[in-house]
Specification:
The two termini are about 15 Å apart. The protein has helices at about 20-35, 50-60, 85-95, 115-125, 140-145, 145-150, 170-180, 200-205, 215-225, 235; strands at about 10, 35-40, 65-70, 95-100, 130, 155, 185. It is globular, with a radius of gyration of 17 Å. The longest helix is centred in the C-terminal third of the chain and has 15 residues, at about 215-225. The chain is built from 10 helices and 7 strands. The protein is an alpha/beta fold. Helix 1 links the parallel strand 1 and strand 2 (about 35-40). The chain has a domain at about 100-230: Metal-dependent hydrolases (TIM Barrel, Alpha-Beta Barrel).
């Protein structure tokens, strides 16, 4: 696939305790073979080696991955449980990113939603958090986070086109003003290859937004380049999508 992609993310998550270490080893091996990949580690709060593993994943002199992915629609825990404190503290200490599916779409359980996330950010306001799917379905509530937490970012994965999975996809016509207020906090996302549509539709959804070319450029690559600390020369000559 040639879509002008210079970097992409690799996101895995452990759905049960005791498997994260092997998954992180695989992810690290992948990162060594594919330097263009922005690879994230995984943990489970019931891992017997939790504290040791989170340090191994994040420390630049060990695996040195870009951060941690948590998928609260799949795993069976709240984001605010005490066992995760060591994870949040390590992420902040190492300046790494947490990608956490904390919104209520396309499905929901007792662990997701803005009310579940707020206690985490209240205790860890400097957490570099990426919220997938623009925080659907509580879009405006999630957008409000950036007022007090400027390190929060969003991605557009799967919410800008009508594919029949998200029952309440983001509507720029009714939420444009709120969207423009967070334009520096929005990054392109696709969920490729696990998507029920052609990848080009994700790109076209950005182009179809009723915003200026400058805002589209931010969403397409500039915001992600800043958030992921990408400064290599390739970004000066080609757009990046993730």
């Amino acid at each position: 696939m040639n879509q002008g992609v210079s970097h992409y993310t690799i996101l895995n998550y452990a759905h049960k305790p005791g498997i994260s270490r092997e998954m992180n080893n695989w992810t690290y091996d992948f990162s060594q073979k594919h330097p263009e990949a922005l690879c994230f580690g995984t943990i489970h709060p019931q891992d017997p080696y939790l504290g040791e593993e989170i340090e191994r994943v994040l420390a630049d002199d060990q695996l040195g991955l870009h951060g941690i992915k948590l998928q609260l629609l799949v795993t069976d825990f709240d984001p605010d449980i005490p066992e995760l404190d060591v994870v949040y503290e390590s992420l902040i200490r190492h300046g790494k990113i947490l990608v956490m599916h904390s919104g209520t779409g396309p499905g929901s359980n007792e662990h997701v939603g803005i009310k579940k996330l707020l206690p985490v950010l209240d205790r860890y306001p400097d957490l570099r958090l990426q919220v997938p799917h623009l925080g659907c379905y509580e879009y405006l509530e999630f957008f409000d986070l950036v007022k007090d937490h400027p390190s929060v970012q969003f991605d557009t994965a799967m919410v800008l086109m009508n594919h029949g999975i998200f029952s309440d996809r983001f509507d720029p016509d009714t939420m444009l003003d709120a969207f423009l207020e967070i334009q520096d906090h929005v990054m392109f996302g696709s969920d490729f290859p696990n998507i029920p549509y052609d990848y080009t539709l994700a790109l076209q959804s950005i182009d179809a937004l009723p915003v200026s070319d400058a805002v589209k450029e931010k969403i397409a690559w500039k915001n992600a380049a800043r958030f992921y600390n990408l400064t290599d020369d390739a970004l000066l000559t080609e757009k990046m999508v993730s």
